[in-house]
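Lecture 7 notes: from sequence to structure.

We start with a single chain of 255 residues. Read the sequence below before looking at the structure.
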Amino acid sequence: RKIGRTELNRYLLAGSLAAVLASLALGWAIRLIYGELEGPATQVFEGTAALTATIVLTYMVFWMGRNARAIRHEIEQRVDIAVSRGQTYGIFALAFVAVVREGIETVLFLTGVFFLDPSGTVIGITLGIGTVLILVMLLLKGTYKLDIRRFFKYSSILLVVLAAGLAGFGVHELIEASESSGVQLGLLSQEAFNINPADNTDIFHEKGVVGSILRALVGYDGNPEWLRVVVYLSYWTIVGVYLLRAYRPVQTLQR
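Now the structure, written as tokens:
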């Protein structure tokens, strides 16, 4: 729209649609594979999927930190080059890569929670898509102007919260898989503490109303293993320090 070539929107939409279909295909394939697994294999699959999602989310955090200041200019430049060379397929490819990257990330992230609570996951997906569509409409109509750097900053914080929880969940599943297979991890698999209320219907129990929400969002566990605690805190420390450095206020020189 900025360069006045709205007739090329069809390539943008086609690339985005193809990416969505590819993401759905990946999700369906994972569902089929998961349905064939039993016993420790299920836990290994869930743990691996959670840790893979953690890696993808972490990559996005680092990518946004590096590109927060120049992303809009870079995208517009790529579009301009593709159009000037008559490479309309470049618009398709740019849209496809941008959307499929998010699609794969979403599939991996939702794999674990979907099998724990399918209906709740579908409701969350629906609300999320609805929110995004409203935001897109406001952006396209010019009602709302998005500050890319600020958006990246706060979404990165959210991604770190989610990724840390996924890392903890993945470690927990792999610990259970190892114990089910007769492999003992000693102190690492022992309970670090237990703050769960005795009544598992209590709202603050990890299976209660509040506890289950925190478990899905931030990886809350009332009785985690030592290895899970170490991984969770280490992740926050390492990636948290990076965020502070990446989004520190820009210093301007005064003459």
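The radius of gyration is 21 Å. Keep this in mind for problem set 3.
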